[in-house]
Design a protein that fits this description.
Elements lengths: L1 H4 L21 H6 L1 H4 L23 H9 L2 H7 L1 E2 L12 H7 L4 H8 L3 E3 L10 H13 L7 E4 L1 E3 L2 E2 L11 H7 L2 H18 L3 E2 L24 H17 L3 E7 L20 H17 L4 E4 L18 H11 L5 E3 L6 H4 L4 H11 L4 E2 L4 H14 L4 H17 L11 H7 L3 H13 L2
Helix pairs in contact: 4-17, 8-18, 10-11, 10-18, 10-19, 11-12, 15-16
Length: 442
C-alpha cells in the first residue's frame, strides 16, 4: 500500500470513502445544507463581474481579459483543486454526493467552478489509458469558460499515481545517484509527455526536499539526495524536462521537508533549522527550481519555529510563504498548499479557517480540502468581509490564469487523443530511458 498511498500532496485519509460522520458534518447533513444542496457559484449570466485591480506590468492581456469577466464566486472557485470520484465525468458516485452535494464530476465542476482537479486511483479515476483520456476530456468539457488544471502526483518510484499505465521510471533517489542532471531532465520529459497524452497538464513533481534525516518516514527515496549542492541541479533539470514536454511542474515541499521524523499526513513535524541552516540546507533546490521557471511550489505542513515562531505550519505561515518564498527567493508563480486533508495542517484550525489562513499566508491553490463547501464558503465569506481583500484574491487568480496561459490552457483546453496516448505511453523509446537511468545508478 505504501507505493500508492504515501503522498506529497495526498493524505492517506483522503482515500477513505466518506461515511456518516467522516467530515465536519454527516453526508446527509451536508446534502441538507443550503450551500451543499444548491450551487453556491452564480452563473456567469447571473453574476455581475467585479472590477479587477490594476494589472501588474507584464501580465498577459488575455489573462486580464479573462479576469475582468469573472464573478467573485468564479474567482474563489479558481483557487480550489478537489478530488472528484469516478472513472468518467458523467459517472454518478455517492462520494461526490456526500462531499459536494451533486452526483457526477461534471456536476461538481458546474456547481463550484474549480480551477482544477487532481486524479487518483483510489478515487476510481485511473483504470486504463483510454478511460483516463475520456475522463480528462470530459472534465474539460464540463468547464467551457476556463479550462482546468488537471493534476497528478506522478513523482515516479514510490509515488506513482498512474502506474501501471505509464512507463516505470526510476524514482528521484535512483536518478540522483547517477550524478547526471541530464537524466533527471530526460526522465521528467518522458513522464511529462505521457501525462500530456492523457490530458494531464500539471504534475506535482519534482520533490525539492533535501533528505538529510535518514529516519524521515515520508520523503526518503522521493528526494534526489542528501546534499543540496547535488539535489539543486537535479531539481532544475526536472523542471526543464517537464517544460520540454509542455507540462507544468511543481517543486515541493517548501520550505523543506527533508529533516523530519514525523509524517505530516498523520502529525505535525517540527524542524529546528535556524535561518542560516535553512538558507544552506533547504533553500537551494527551491531557488534552483525558481531559476528554471518552475510553475508552482507546494507548501509543507511543517513547523519551523526559527523561521516563524507562531507555531503554524508553513502552509499557514505568511512569514514563510510570503516573506521567504515570495520576498526572499523572488517567486511569483503559483503557491499550492499540500493536501488540506492532512493532519499536519488541521490540528489548530477548522477546515474553513485553514483555507482562509492559507490564502492570507500567500497560497494561491488550495489542494484537496476535506470539507469542500466549508472551505469554499469560508474563503468567499472572508473576501466579502474584507478579511481577504479583493486585490489579494485577484493576485492568486491572476497567477493561476497566467500558469494556464503559459502552458497553452487558458483560451481552450487541448483535447487528448486516445490513439496517440496508447502510442506514447510505455513506448519503446520511453522504456529505453528508464533502462539507461537504472544502468547508471550507483
Amino acid at each position: 500500500m505504501i507505493a500508492t498511498m504515501v503522498a506529497g500532496c495526498a493524505a492517506t485519509g483522503a482515500s477513505a470513502p466518506v461515511r456518516a460522520e467522516s467530515q465536519a458534518g454527516s453526508a446527509s447533513a451536508q446534502a441538507a445544507s443550503p450551500s451543499a444542496a444548491s450551487p453556491s457559484v452564480a452563473s456567469p449570466s447571473a453574476a455581475s463581474p467585479e472590477p479587477s485591480t490594476a494589472p501588474p506590468a507584464g501580465s498577459p492581456a488575455q489573462v486580464e481579459a479573462v479576469l475582468r469577466k469573472m464573478s467573485l464566486e468564479e474567482k474563489v472557485g479558481q483557487l480550489f483543486m478537489p478530488v472528484l470520484y469516478g472513472p468518467a465525468a458523467d459517472t454518478s458516485s455517492p462520494e461526490n454526493r456526500a462531499r459536494y452535494g451533486v452526483d457526477t464530476p461534471a456536476k461538481v465542476i458546474e456547481k463550484y467552478r474549480p480551477g482544477g482537479v487532481i486524479l487518483f486511483p483510489w478515487a476510481n479515476n485511473v483504470k486504463g489509458v483510454r478511460q483516463v483520456v475520456a475522463l480528462t476530456n470530459g472534465l474539460q468539457k464540463a468547464s467551457p469558460r476556463i479550462p482546468l488544471l488537471v493534476g497528478a502526483d506522478q513523482e515516479n518510484g514510490r509515488v506513482s499515481r498512474l502506474a501501471p499505465l505509464v512507463t516505470d521510471m526510476p524514482g528521484a533517489s535512483v536518478i540522483g545517484s547517477t550524478g547526471d542532471p541530464s537524466l533527471a531532465r530526460r526522465a521528467a520529459k518522458v513522464t511529462g509527455a505521457e501525462l500530456k497524452a492523457l490530458g494531464i497538464n500539471l504534475d506535482f513533481a519534482p520533490v525539492a526536499d533535501v533528505n538529510i534525516n535518514p529516519r524521515n518516514p515520508v520523503i526518503g527515496p522521493r528526494a534526489y539526495g542528501s546534499d543540496p549542492k547535488k539535489v539543486s541541479p537535479m531539481v532544475a533539470a526536472a523542471v526543464q524536462g517537464f517544460h520540454d514536454a509542455g507540462v507544468a511542474s511543481t517543486a515541493k515541499h517548501f520550505p523543506g521537508h527533508g529533516d523530519t521524523n514525523v509524517d505530516s499526513h498523520t502529525g505535525l513535524p517540527v524542524i529546528q533549522h535556524s535561518r542560516a541552516q535553512w538558507e544552506k540546507l533547504d533553500a537551494p533546490p527551491f531557488a534552483a527550481a525558481i531559476g528554471a521557471d518552475v510553475d508552482a511550489i507546494m507548501s509543507a505542513h511543517v513547523v519551523m519555529p526559527k523561521l516563524d515562531p507562531s507555531g503554524d505550519p508553513a502552509t499557514l505561515s505568511k512569514p514563510i510563504l510570503t516573506g521567504l518564498l515570495r520576498d526572499k527567493l523572488g517567486f511569483d508563480g503559483v503557491v499550492s498548499t499540500d493536501a488540506l486533508d492532512m493532519a499536519g495542517v488541521r490540528k489548530k484550525y477548522g477546515d474553513a479557517q485553514v483555507a482562509v489562513r492559507a490564502v492570507q499566508a500567500g497560497a494561491d491553490l488550495l489542494l484537496m480540502p476535506p470539507n469542500y463547501s466549508a472551505a469554499y464558503d469560508g474563503v468567499l465569506t472572508a473576501v466579502k468581509s474584507g478579511k481577504i481583500s479583493r486585490a489579494r484574491l485577484d493576485q492568486s487568480v491572476r497567477r493561476l490564469l497566467k500558469l494556464k496561459f503559459n502552458r497553452g490552457l487558458l483560451v481552450k483546453a487541448p483535447v487528448a487523443d486516445p490513439d496517440e496516448a496508447e502510442r506514447v505511453l510505455r513506448s519503446p523509446e520511453h522504456r529505453k530511458v528508464a533502462r539507461l537511468i537504472n544502468s547508471r545508478a550507483r
